[in-house]
Amino acid sequence: MIELEGVPELIDPVMVAAFEGWNDAGDAASGAVAHLDREWKGEVFAALDAEDYYDFQVNRPTVWLDNGVRKITWPTTRLSVVRIGGTKPRDLVLVRGIEPSMRWRSFCNEILGFAHELGVEMVVILGALLGDTPHTRPVPVSGVTSDADLARTMDLEETKYEGPTGIVGILQEACTHAGVPAVSLWAAVPHYVSQPPNPKATLALLNRLEDLIDIRIPLGELPEDARAWQLGVDQLAAEDSEVAEYVQTLEEARDTADLPEASGDAIAREFERYLRRRDPAGPPAEPGDGSYLRDTSGGLPRPPKRKPDPEPGPSDDSPEPDENDTPPQA
């Protein structure tokens, strides 16, 4: 039985989860949850037993010195909670860890046990995949769900993907079978610049999360980091004519695909989202007053000679990640 003695009653809680590994191209998803935890000073209230879910030859523990005393940090998944202040306070339960090596069903059941005990209203799982998208354009973020009613009411895609999946897909299906509303947000990361970090993709995920659950996230230096990242990739691409030509091909394909969406209504909707996120009436939501928890715890690779053939992806028209780096989504 899960006991949460140090956690108070939460206000309209939403669980936001991300896992390092196959679901996390460019560390964009785990970076987004880390940003939330850092900006709102999250307090850890639980950690899953590393012995139950991780192969330590795959995800090795690390040794470090604390005032001369050697200590070990084990790979695991931790849960923290942050309170968003303002006129409409609410809580986020942040789940951040590494994709487990084994016992995925037990892992998801344990996460759902915490969600049930905390009264979580919805689970949002963040992921990132590699795709044929140019770094010079806005990062595509798709929102998908297995729940047809949720897809209709929240303007999401109902996933039709079939194929190998990662912990993001497994956890989403576990939520669906348990009757917990669940949404996955996927950012597409350019496959030719997949090295982490990717602050531009992290920023795109946070912006989409703002829209989805109607909160305002303090972005700190993330927008500037995203601009610096793009400038850096621009410079690297300019030094290689083959890469520059490939990027131009991706830009043309992206612009052609986006052309039908460049209608007056679409532009108006996007401008409304921008205004909601950056309402000048007040600053972004800040953490609640004081602590309320007891703590219990290189260069660009060369592009392919031709554009790769499309494979099945997270949705009917989304790119599929490379098998060795990031997963397809369920």
Automatic annotation (TrEMBL):
The lineage of its organism: Bacteria, Bacillati, Actinomycetota, Actinomycetes, Kitasatosporales. Residues 317-330 have a biased composition (Acidic residues). This is Proteasome assembly chaperone (PAC2) family protein. The keyword Acyltransferase does not apply. Residues 274-330 are annotated as: Disordered. It comes from Streptomyces avidinii. Pfam families: PAC2. GO terms for cellular component: proteasome complex. SUPFAM superfamilies: Cgl1923-like. Keywords: Proteasome. InterPro entries: Proteasome_assmbl_chaperone_2, PSMG2_sf, Rv2714-like. The keyword Membrane does not apply. It comes from the Bacteria.
